[in-house]
Structures are given as C-alpha cells and as structure tokens.
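Researcher: We plan to redesign the surface later, but first we want a full-length starting point. Tokens attached.
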C-alpha cells in the first residue's frame, strides 16, 4: 500500500479524542497503538485484541509517527557536561 493510502487511515477530528490522531473509524489513537507496540505487544496480538484493526492500520500509525518526527525541529536545552 502506498504512503498516501496509508496516511488516509489516520484522521484528526477535534470532536473525537480531543483531536488526537486516530485510526479512521475507531477510537484508537496513534499514540495508544505505538505505546502498546513499545510495551511489547506484537502486531498479531493487537489484531487479535482489536478485531476491526488491520495490519495496514498499524503500519499507518508507524508511518504517521515517523513523518511527524521527521518534521520536528529539535533544539538542545543545555549542553552536556
């Protein structure tokens, strides 16, 4: 699936989850899915737990996060001693 189709799976709506990016048609936020993955859940476990979820939804979360971080400017707060 191409980049554009994947990103269409992620939506932001101020009326849903306070505007957090979510998987279209769900109340599952990108942050929540990433947190589960970071805490050791596998893609297969997520697909089993959330029956409506598709592998492409998880891939879309990863792509969204990657592109969000890529467009962030980082500035050091202090020099390391």
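Model: Full-length starting sequence:
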């Amino acid at each position: 699936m191409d980049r554009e189709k994947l990103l269409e799976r992620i939506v932001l709506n101020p009326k849903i989850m306070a505007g957090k990016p979510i998987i279209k048609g769900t109340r599952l936020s990108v942050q929540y899915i990433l947190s589960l993955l970071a805490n050791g859940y596998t893609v297969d476990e997520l697909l089993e737990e959330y029956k409506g979820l598709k592998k492409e939804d998880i891939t879309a979360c990863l792509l969204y996060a990657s592109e969000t971080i890529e467009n962030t400017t980082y500035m050091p707060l202090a020099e390391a001693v």
